[in-house]
Amino acid sequence: MTIFTCKSDLTSMMTCIYDAWASRKGHGNIKLLREPVFQQELFDEYIHVEGDEEKAEKVLRSVRAKISPTAYIDVLYAAHSCEEDALDTIYRFLVLGFAYGAKVSSMLSYPPVMRLMELKRNVGNEAHFMHEFTRFTSIDGKVYVSHIEPKNDVLALTAEHFQDRMPSEYFLIIDDRRRSVAVHPRNEEFYIRYLTAEEAQSLSETEQITDEYTVLWRTFFDTIGIKERANPVCQRNLFPIWRRKHVTEFM
Amino acid sequence: MNTNRQMSGGERPADANMQNVAFVAETVPCIIGQPALEEKLRILADAAKYDVACTSSGVDRKGKEGFLGNARACGICHSFASDGRCISLLKILMTNHCVYDCKYCVNRVSNDVVRTTFTPDEICQLTVEFYKRNYIEGLFLSSGVLKNPAYTMERMCETLALLRGKYRFNGYIHVKTIPGAPDELLATAGYLADRISINLELPTAESLEKLAPNKSFQTILNPMGKVSSTIAAHRLAIGKDARMERSMSNRYLEKNIFQSARLAEKTGSVQLPAPVTGGELGRPFAPAGQSTQMIIGASGESDYNLIQTTQRLYQSYDLKRVFYSAYIPLNEDADLPSLGTAPPLLREHRLYQADWLLRFYGFEADELLSEEKPNFNELLDPKCDWALRHLELFPVELQTASYDLILRIPGIGPKSAGRIVKARRYGSLTYENLKKMGVVLKRAHYFVTCGGRMMYPIPIDEQYITRQLVGTNQRENWQIAHQNGARQMSLFDDFGVQLMS
The complex's ipTM? Predict the structure, then answer.
């Protein structure tokens, strides 16, 4: 078995798919993994693939043109998944996709198609959770800062949502897990960059800021529940404790 | 004790007046931060918490430069309160002063509670600041009746106009209308808000008369009819269908309650007048439609009554949602259940299940219940119950059955049904890949065959399947009925043990 490995950005992953395909070793004889690979196997050959804009663009273009725009979006979402088998699933899906064309998205009884749908759903759901549970703290009413820790890489999807929502505010959304940040200047497009350790450290303190509205919000949150209907199990199902880490009303 | 409460009750309005003076004299931000605002928020959120609707769905709207906010048709919950209900909107009353004396209500005029009123600016600031921190999706504004319905409604419209105008708020607003408010104000509210609602409270005119002597069916249904025909007219004017969008699954159903619907004939031709203010903002009229809510268990209606009323409301008033609220005894009254009666949560749950069957599954009220059997089965959900009474239709062959029939199998919803129909075009189905597709067979396997075989050898026998399903449902039913009945004892909370530090 030959195993192709790459970094976990989109360009590298798509290049990896391109090279794996072009290696002509047979789809059954190869596997794709994202780095870091923690446990190497004895009899497998590992090949590292470096990202290449041109190859990545070729792959994405043919997904759009030869399969369908829907499949393209599904692949993009799945690429942001944190699951280990995400890259391999995309590859298997594309093998089917280039054979069957647009109808591949409906062929749910094929395992790679179903798995891709699951990955896409998982990323989409997590992005939606971030729309719900991201909390901003205000720094003097000028800049709004929030910290998130999603499992999948949904920073861009989250920032896109808030860009549409608050186009005329300065805000930062910081992904503590990946140490990346989406910066949104007033009335401009947001961009993503990575933080240095010192920057991350100094930004981590913003979460402790309280003002009158954090107090008012906690008051509101405590008041609005009906005690005759108290139901902590339901609350935990809908708002799991691990998601509450950066949420104002539970801090 | 009593005098104390009366005193504080008497003092509050004076407090509120003083605040108004301060507000006029000083700049706006100064009122924030005074403890009075927190106290007001506590009182008015506490009074609003019994309102059920906290949805922010039904309208898609992009953000605009210079404005704050957008709206998503799917709706976004922002938190979940200790009772497990979602917090999507800043749900407050404008005031809990009320001249009405509805027996079930905590804010009725005869109750001795602390009363207060928000100023329009306070509401706007709270909404905007909460919204910027992503605490909420918008504002849910309801109110007690201050002086008279017209005055109250005018104050509410003023608040909304301020929020949309001066504060440039483009997010979601749900406004409750006050029964008996004039049409002009209703129209203004509709242009400013996304969803407009008026509470039906009780499903029959008699019980409404008994429990809410100041309200009448006429003052509730009349505005509801006018709002629905105004919405229809506006939808037609912008090239949409007169009726609200419904779940996609309804398009594939041969029959559903929305097809046979006709807007209410009586009020069909009466529309609201042009708005006094708000029209110049160029907003559509109540784009997310209207909704209502009914109280469950305060009067003697049967489930059949409630579900029929619900269907009629969907059909003739084109409501987006009908909400149910299990009655929580707050007032002592001969006409009401006594204090301490547990809220009928399981019954409320059954009604919501039935409501979903009407809106997404193509069921009709008469199929679920009848005069002879006016209440839902406590042990089984309405869909299982229906299936057991119609065993002649089952088992259903998943490879060939129509979408309508697949949707009627207990345990299979619009998503699973859609996936089955989609997937079987490209390959034959087995139980194995049904499971992989995410179709849950826990209840469904009693009612289906796949490739001519049932999952387990099961007799299609009513008694047998009933026993099995009741066993499956038992745990869930118990949990819903006893939400806070039992809990784990804790050394720390119950016996005051403290951690060594």
Answer: 0.93
Neighboring chain B residues of A108 at a CB cutoff of 8 Å: 419, 422-423, 433, 436-437
> By the 8 A CB rule, do A171 and A185 touch?
no
Distance from CA of B180 to the nearest CA of A (A): 28
Q: What is the DSSP letter of B109?
A: T
Task: Find which of B65, B77, B83 to mutate to test the A interface (most A CBs within 10 Å of its CB).
Answer: B83
Domain residue limits, chain B: 12-368, 382-481
Omega prior to B343 cis, within 30 of 0:
no
Domain architecture of chain A: domains with CATH: 2-125 (no CATH), 134-209 (3.30.1300), 210-251 (no CATH)
Candidates A85, A105, A86, A83; CA nearest to A96 is A105
Domain B12-368 has CATH 3.20.20.70: yes
Smallest Cα–Cα separation from B122: which of B193, B12, B195, B41? Answer: B41
pTM, two decimal places: 0.87
Digits of tens for pLDDT over chain B (501 positions)? 333 333 333 333 334 444 444 443 334 444 444 448 999 999 999 999 998 888 899 899 999 999 999 999 999 999 999 999 999 999 999 999 999 999 999 999 999 999 999 999 999 999 999 999 999 999 999 999 999 999 999 999 999 999 999 999 999 999 999 998 999 999 999 999 999 999 998 888 888 999 998 888 888 999 999 999 899 888 888 888 888 888 878 888 888 888 776 655 544 456 777 665 545 557 889 999 999 999 998 888 899 999 999 999 999 899 999 999 999 998 888 888 888 888 899 999 999 999 999 999 999 999 999 999 999 988 899 999 999 999 999 999 999 999 999 999 999 999 999 999 988 988 889 998 898 888 999 999 999 999 899 999 888 888 889 988 888 777 777 777 776 555 667 777 677 777 665
CB contact under 8 A, A238 and B50: no
CB contact under 8 Å between A138 and B133, yes or no, is yes
Mutate one of B82, B127, B128, B416 to test the A interface: name it (highest A CB count within 10 A).
B82
Residues of chain A contacting residue B83, judged by C-beta atoms under 8 Å apart: 225-227, 229-231, 234-235
| Closest approach of A169 to chain B, Cα-based (Å) | 9
Which chain A residues are Cβ-neighbours of B87 within 8 angstroms? 221, 224
The C-alpha atoms of residue B26 and residue B8 are separated, in whole angstroms, by 26
Residues of A with CB below 8 A from B326's CB?
Answer: 229
CA nearest neighbour of A129 among A100, A98, A161, A89:
A161
Q: Enumerate the residues of chain A whose CB falls inside 8 A of the CB of residue B61.
A: none
With the CA atoms of B168, B172, B178 and B181 taken in that order, what torsion angle do they form, in degrees rounded to the nearest 10?
A: 50
* Total CB pairs under 8 A between chain A and B: 176
Give the whole-angstrom CA distance, residue B46 versus residue B299: 24
